[in-house]
Amino acid sequence: MSSALTDLFPHPIVQAPMAGGVSVPQLAAAVSEAGGLGFLAAGYKTADGMYQEIKQLRGLTGRPFGVNLFMPQPEYADPAAVEVYAHQLAGEAGWYDTELGDPDSGRDDGYDAKLAVLLDNPVPVASFHFGIPSAETLESLRRAGIFTLVTATTPEEALAVQYAGADAVIAQGVEAGGHQGTHRDIPEQDGSGLGLLSLVAQIRETVTLPIVAAGGIMRGSQIAAVLAAGACAAQLGTAFLATHESGAPDVHKQALTNPLFVRTELTRAFSGRPARGLVNRFLREHGPYAPAAYPEVHHLTAPLRKAAAKAKDAQGMALWAGQGHRMARDLPAGQLVELLAAELADARTALSAKGGLR
C-alpha cells in the first residue's frame, strides 16, 4: 500500500527511534542510505542536542529521515510511592557507588523548545510517543512540510490520532521493545495490550490513515504479514539495536541473543511506565514494586542505569528488547535493510504464487 509517507523511501522499512543513545545519526543515515527511513530519537536530549544531531545526520545523508519527540506527561504520580521506591533502590545506589537521581528533574522533556527547532529547521518526518500533539501543532508542522506520525496502542487511540489531524498512525503491538506508547498510563491495564496483527487489522477498520506497524518484527516475512494486514510500512527497533551503527552498549547488543536472557517482560522498574525489556536481576527484584510514576522513576534510576552500563553489568541495565530479540542479527544497518527487503520480496513472491496477495 503506497502513501505519502512510503513515497519518501524505496523500502517499507522504518528504523524505530530508540531513545537513550541507540538511534544515533550514523544508524539513521545508514538506514536511509539503504532505502529505509532512518530515525533520530529526541527523547531525553536537550533541544540543542537534538538540533546538533539533525545537523550531523544531514551531513551524512541527503535522504529523508525522521525525528521522534516524547509528549509532556501529566502529573499523576504519588510522591509517597516514589519515595518508598527510592528507599528500596538505596541498596542499588550503594552497590554501584552512585547517588539516586532527582525524581523532580522535569516532565516535559523540553517539548516546546524541540518543536520550535523543528519548525525553524523542518525535517521530512516527525513522530510522537506517549500522547498526541494538539491539532494546532500538527497543522503547524504540516505547513512546515513535515509529515507527522503518532503512536497508538488501541483502535480508540488511533481514532484520536486521526481526529487530531496527524498524517499517519504507528500501530504499536504489545510485542514491541521499549516503552509502550499508550496515551494514558493506566496501571490496571498493564500487560493487556493487543498483539500487532490484531491491532493493525482493528485500526485498519477504524481509521483511514496510513498505518506503520511496530512490535516484534525481525524478518522480511513478518513485514510482508503486516503489509498484507493493511499497513503501509513496518517499524523495527530491536532488529536495528543489534546493528554495527547502533549506539547501544555492546553488552546490550550481546544480551539480545545471550542464552542467559530467555524472555522479555513489561516492567515499570526502570522508568515508572510500562516498557518491554529482557528479564534481568534488576527487573525481577524491583519490577513488582515500581510505582506508576513516569518520568519520576526514570530520573530516579538514571544514575543506576548509567553506572551499570559503565560496569558492563547487564543485570542492572534497562535491556529494552522486543519479543523477537533472539532473532537479532549482527550486521551493518544498511546490509540489514537490504536483507529485510530481499526477504520481503521472497515472501511476497511466495504469497503471490499461493494466491495470498491480491
TrEMBL record:
InterPro entries: Aldolase_TIM (IPR013785), NMO (IPR004136)
Catalysed reaction equations from the record: 3 propionate 3-nitronate + 3 O2 + H2O = 3 3-oxopropanoate + 2 nitrate + nitrite + H2O2 + 3 H(+)
Source taxon at top rank: Bacteria
Any one GO BP annotation for this protein: response to toxic substance
One Pfam family named in its UniProt record: NMO
Keywords: Detoxification, Dioxygenase, Flavoprotein, FMN, Monooxygenase, Nucleotide-binding, Oxidoreductase
Cofactor: FMN
One GO MF term: nucleotide binding
Family: Belongs to the nitronate monooxygenase family. NMO class I subfamily.
Biological function: Nitronate monooxygenase that uses molecular oxygen to catalyze the oxidative denitrification of alkyl nitronates. Acts on propionate 3-nitronate (P3N), the presumed physiological substrate. Probably functions in the detoxification of P3N, a metabolic poison produced by plants and fungi as a defense mechanism.
Protein name: Probable nitronate monooxygenase
